[in-house]
């Protein structure tokens, strides 16, 4: 077995592309959950206070940005994979680990933004209702 075959096996690119896929898939899942959950809060609060809908779009925008982070990291990982040069197993594992870090962090962040956005938007509508009703007395 040659030294280049030993340190650069053919299956090492699988781990690199698994990192690319995990970065994209997990951040997109987190972004989708955050957008959906925040949208539920907007529809719940927007039925009673329609003038608050534009102010309540911040969690939706924040959740949408998470998928962009996954896209950027996936492009950076795939850009460093050169088929003409040797792609070592260490590089494949390093790209897999970085893709998993970005992807799972994006999934957790989207989940948190969704929950906090839902409760925050509903609470914002409730506080706005109480503030207006208290100022009328």
UniProtKB/TrEMBL annotation:
Keywords, ordered alphabetically: Hydrogen ion transport, Ion transport, Membrane, Transmembrane, Transmembrane helix, Transport, Vacuole
What is this protein's function?
Proton-conducting pore forming of the V0 complex of vacuolar(H+)-ATPase (V-ATPase), a multisubunit enzyme composed of a peripheral complex (V1) that hydrolyzes ATP and a membrane integral complex (V0) that translocates protons. V-ATPase is responsible for acidifying and maintaining the pH of intracellular compartments.
Has UniProt tagged this entry with the keyword Nuclease?
no
Gene3D superfamilies assigned to the protein according to its UniProt record, in alphabetical order? lithium bound rotor ring of v- atpase
> What is the protein's membrane topology class?
Multi-pass membrane protein
GO cellular component terms, alphabetically, are: proton-transporting V-type ATPase, V0 domain; vacuolar membrane
| Transmembrane segment boundaries | 14-35, 56-77, 97-121
Q: Which Pfam families match?
A: ATP-synt_C (PF00137)
Domain V-ATPase proteolipid subunit C-like positions = 19-77
Query: What name does this protein carry?
Result: V-type proton ATPase proteolipid subunit
What is said about its interaction partners and assembly?
V-ATPase is a heteromultimeric enzyme composed of a peripheral catalytic V1 complex (components A to H) attached to an integral membrane V0 proton pore complex (components: a, c, c', c'', d, e, f and VOA1). The decameric c-ring forms the proton-conducting pore, and is composed of eight proteolipid subunits c, one subunit c' and one subunit c''.
Lineage of the organism? Eukaryota, Fungi, Fungi incertae sedis, Zoopagomycota, Kickxellomycotina
Assign the protein's first listed, main location to one coarse class.
membrane
Matching PANTHER family = V-TYPE PROTON ATPASE PROTEOLIPID SUBUNIT
Give the family from UniProt: Belongs to the V-ATPase proteolipid subunit family.
Question: Where is this protein found?
Answer: Membrane; Vacuole membrane
């Amino acid at each position: 077995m040659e030294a280049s075959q030993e340190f650069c096996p053919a299956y090492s690119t699988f781990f690199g592309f698994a990192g690319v896929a995990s970065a994209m898939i997990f951040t997109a899942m987190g972004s989708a959950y955050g957008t959906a959950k925040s949208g539920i809060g907007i529809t719940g609060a927007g039925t009673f206070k329609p003038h608050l809908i534009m102010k309540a779009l911040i969690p939706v925008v924040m959740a949408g940005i998470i998928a962009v982070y996954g896209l950027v990291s996936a492009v950076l990982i795939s850009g460093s994979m050169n088929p003409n040069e040797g792609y070592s197993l260490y590089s494949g594992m390093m790209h897999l680990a970085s893709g998993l870090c970005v992807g799972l962090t994006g999934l957790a962040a989207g989940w948190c933004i969704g929950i906090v956005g839902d409760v925050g938007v509903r609470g914002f509508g409730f506080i706005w209702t109480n503030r207006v009703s208290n100022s009328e007395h």
